[in-house]
């Protein structure tokens, strides 16, 4: 079918923050990516025809890869393979060993496994501590943070971007008061639909049919359920702490354990007591639980109330170990 062929598709992310915006859809492809990449320069786009126009105007005379099923042409075989899979065949022959996810290529499957299950980030930046699961993300990071020509400059702060789309996202996220995406359950608003989706999943996702037989954990996603069982109720705990006897089934859990228990620096300090924390989220949880009366999580079996879901989970394990109930939702939504 293809006139030229190499291994799986190549893409880059359009996110300014790789740690928080590298999210996988129910399909193979991560959100906010630009999968069509020019190999002659740093241009990338999410539209295949835009890449065609770019190649014709900027790189005339270069080798062209043509699709036999339509008029599409590409600058490299990777983009042509991506086009054929996404536009013509729709095949997903690569199945994840951890969940029900299927991918169009071995490359996408590796990214899914690293992002969702193992936490592996083999591609490391030579200029800083940044790591990623995909080489093209590292390439974009280096260009954006260290070596690239950041021609798109924010008029309101020092932020610069390689691509106009990144600048537009930055301005709407950081400087715009317009937040058209509104939560139907609480007062939360967002500048982007992806942020609202994250809020809905974390705060208001109601139906969670997959219930753990060993604890109170429930989830809407079968893949997350398998990961939970492997991480919390499996004897296969291959990731071992070198400083103590802690072990876990997931690399991400070991990393969190190291940060919380064996890191010396605790830069996030509580202004109301001497407590210090490694992560800002833990400081926020501390303030909510120790210094406010906000306790939205209530036990269904007794009068116990608390500010954080993990505290209620611990209470259930200690006081009601035989009970299997739905993962409790807060009585009221937590203030933003």
UniProtKB/TrEMBL annotation:
Predominant localisation class: nucleus
Keywords per UniProt: DNA-binding, Metal-binding, Nucleus, Repeat, Transcription, Transcription regulation, Zinc, Zinc-finger
InterPro entries named in the record: Znf_C2H2_sf (IPR036236), Znf_C2H2_type (IPR013087)
Domain C2H2-type: 36-64, 65-93, 94-122, 123-151, 152-180, 181-209, 239-267, 268-296
GO CC annotations on file: nucleus
Region of interest called Disordered, as start-end residue ranges on this chain: 317-336
Pfam families tied to this protein: zf-C2H2, zf-H2C2_5
Molecular function (Gene Ontology), one example: zinc ion binding
Entry keyword DNA repair: no
Compartments where located: Nucleus
SUPFAM superfamilies: beta-beta-alpha zinc fingers
Entry-linked PANTHER family: MYONEURIN, ZINC FINGER PROTEIN
Family membership: Belongs to the krueppel C2H2-type zinc-finger protein family. Belongs to the hunchback C2H2-type zinc-finger protein family.
The protein's name: C2H2-type domain-containing protein
Species of origin: Nezara viridula
């Amino acid at each position: 079918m293809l006139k030229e062929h190499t291994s799986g598709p190549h893409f880059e992310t359009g996110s300014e923050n790789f740690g928080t915006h590298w999210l996988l859809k129910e399909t193979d492809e991560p959100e906010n990516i630009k999968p069509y990449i020019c190999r002659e320069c740093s241009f990338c786009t999410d539209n295949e025809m835009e890449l065609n126009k770019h190649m014709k105007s900027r790189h005339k005379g270069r080798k062209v890869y043509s699709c036999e099923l339509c008029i599409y042409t590409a600058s490299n075989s990777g983009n042509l393979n991506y086009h054929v899979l996404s536009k013509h065949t729709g095949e997903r022959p690569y199945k994840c060993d951890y969940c029900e996810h299927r991918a169009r290529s071995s490359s996408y499957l590796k990214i899914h496994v690293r992002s969702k299950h193992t936490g592996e980030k083999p591609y490391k930046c030579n200029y800083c501590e940044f790591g990623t699961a995909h080489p093209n993300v590292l390439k974009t990071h280096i260009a954006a943070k260290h070596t690239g020509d950041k021609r798109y400059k924010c008029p309101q702060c020092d932020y610069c971007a390689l691509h106009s789309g990144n600048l537009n996202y930055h301005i709407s996220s950081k400087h715009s008061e317009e937040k058209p995406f509104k939560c139907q359950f609480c007062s939360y608003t967002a500048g982007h639909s992806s942020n609202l989706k994250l809020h809905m999943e974390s705060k208001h996702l109601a139906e969670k049919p997959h219930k753990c037989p060993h604890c109170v954990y429930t989830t809407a996603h079968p893949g997350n359920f398998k990961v939970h069982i492997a991480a919390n109720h499996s004897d296969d705990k291959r990731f071992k702490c070198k400083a103590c006897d802690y072990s876990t089934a997931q690399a991400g859990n070991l990393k969190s354990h190291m940060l919380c228990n064996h890191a010396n620096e605790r830069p996030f300090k509580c202004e109301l007591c001497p407590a210090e924390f490694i992560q800002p989220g833990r400081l926020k949880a501390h303030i909510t639980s120790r210094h406010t009366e906000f306790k939205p999580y209530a036990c269904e079996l007794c009068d116990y109330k608390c500010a954080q879901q993990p505290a209620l989970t611990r209470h259930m394990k200690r006081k009601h170990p035989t009970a299997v109930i739905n993962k409790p939702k807060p009585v009221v939504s937590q203030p933003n």
